């Protein structure tokens, strides 16, 4: 047998999981334990207040957006006596890794072994900068946490209970941080293709949005009645054609840390998505359209003024707006595995393991 190690696929899975965790430990030792941003301190204060039972405002202090989810997640680690840098590193890394790990776990249990391994190592295949951005507590990844639950409708898009999960996760994730839209967009295109004739699909989805909508209404009423808590309101979102065209001069600014393996050419992920989407159109039109329409959506967002509020710093990069793309990449692989008809599962799994070894070698 050419790949005897894969006789114990569970051992391979555990090994790759350890690689992912080792990658994060490396990032903590060399970055998070040494550097702290201004917003991190506000998250720390939020956790201190929550520990006392004090909840001063619905969102990040001084803003009417961005729920401080990291502060809630850090509470148990702070109670254990961990330092603020370590507690928040674990909290934020848990939030950012959850979609990959949960997708991977469910797929592995359902015997989608290659797809599970790919989802598992996506964070490992991305550059160190991605790991840093998704481990600092600045509210970049909190909305994406809820995209982990999208695995259920992807596996069974016609089940009513999964429609509720999708709408609930999307709406809550959007209220927490709109970055989830990049992952929700292709899923909803696909679900609409399959369920657009079913009235129950719309009814269940609308009802599931109610909790998030209620939260947002209550929050905005709070800020209207307590304007002293609002120092930095959400800017009015506008599409600017000149900004849109300017984005193509330096696409690496926006997509620099989002392409697996080929790190120096981050924007290449857009062409990979385009290629797979076109190929998939012939095999599965619905999935192909979902992929290509999401790619178009991503490109169009380059004209939104908020996307261009960034600094030349790892603490506020432009790519923070597109952190959903790696999860979207995993979904694309899941949908397009059938295109690789000439590659066996063992060959693909060996390739993924080799890529993981290479990535961990280059990083460490």
Looking at this protein, list some descriptive labels.
364 residues, mainly alpha, 0% strand, globular
In brief, what are we looking at here?
The protein has 364 residues and is mainly α. The protein has helices spanning 9-32, 38-51, 69-79, 84-109, 113-125, 128-133, 151-155, 160-176, 181-195, 199-225, 241-247, 252-255, 268-283, 285-300, 325-336, 345-363. The longest helix has 27 residues, at 199-225.
Explain this structure.
The chain has 364 residues and is an all-alpha fold. Helix content is 64%, strand content 0%. It has helices at 9-32, 38-51, 69-79, 84-109, 113-125, 128-133, 151-155, 160-176, 181-195, 199-225, 241-247, 252-255, 268-283, 285-300, 325-336, 345-363. Helix 2 (38-51) crosses helix 3 (69-79). The radius of gyration is 21 Å and the shape is globular. The chain starts with 8 loop residues before the first helix and ends with a helix. The model has no long low-confidence stretch (mean pLDDT 93).
Protein topology:
Layout lengths: L8 H24 L5 H14 L17 H11 L4 H26 L3 H13 L2 H6 L17 H5 L4 H17 L4 H15 L3 H27 L15 H7 L4 H4 L12 H16 L1 H16 L24 H12 L8 H19 L1
Helix pairs in contact: 1-5, 1-16, 2-3, 3-4, 4-5, 5-15, 5-16, 8-10, 9-14, 13-14, 13-15
């Amino acid at each position: 047998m050419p790949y005897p190690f894969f006789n114990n696929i569970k051992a391979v899975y555990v090994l790759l999981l350890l690689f992912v965790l080792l990658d994060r430990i490396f990032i903590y030792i060399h970055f998070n334990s040494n550097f702290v941003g201004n917003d991190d301190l506000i998250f720390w204060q939020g956790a201190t207040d929550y520990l006392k039972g004090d909840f001063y405002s619905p969102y990040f202090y001084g803003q009417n957006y961005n729920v401080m989810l990291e502060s809630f997640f850090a509470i148990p680690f702070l109670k254990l006596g961990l330092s603020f840098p370590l507690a928040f590193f674990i909290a934020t890394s848990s939030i950012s890794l959850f979609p990959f790990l949960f997708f991977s776990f469910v797929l592995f249990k359902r015997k989608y072994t290659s797809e599970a391994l790919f989802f598992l190592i996506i964070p490992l295949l991305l550059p160190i900068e991605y790991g840093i951005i998704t481990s600092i507590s600045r509210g970049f990844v909190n909305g994406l946490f809820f995209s982990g639950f999208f695995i259920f409708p992807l596996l069974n898009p016609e089940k009513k209970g999964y429609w509720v999960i999708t709408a609930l996760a999307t709406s809550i994730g959007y209220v927490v941080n709109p970055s989830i839209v990049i992952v929700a967009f292709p899923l909803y295109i696909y679900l609409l293709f399959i369920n657009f004739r079913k009235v129950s699909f719309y009814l269940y989805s609308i009802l599931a949005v109610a909790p998030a909508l209620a939260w947002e209404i209550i929050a905005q009423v709070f800020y209207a009645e307590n304007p002293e808590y609002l120092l930095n309101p959400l800017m009015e979102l506008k599409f600017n054609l000149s900004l849109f065209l300017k984005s193509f001069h330096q696409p690496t600014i926006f997509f620099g840390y989002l392409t697996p393996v080929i790190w120096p050419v981050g924007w290449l992920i857009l062409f990979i998505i385009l290629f797979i989407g076109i190929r998939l159109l012939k095999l599965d039109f619905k999935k192909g359209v979902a992929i290509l329409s999401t790619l178009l959506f991503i490109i169009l967002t380059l004209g939104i003024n908020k996307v261009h509020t960034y600094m030349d710093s790892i603490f506020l990069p432009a790519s923070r707006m597109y952190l959903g793309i790696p999860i979207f990449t995993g979904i694309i692989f899941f949908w397009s595995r059938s295109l690789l008809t000439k590659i066996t599962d063992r060959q693909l799994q060996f390739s993924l393991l080799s890529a993981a070894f290479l990535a961990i070698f280059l990083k460490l």
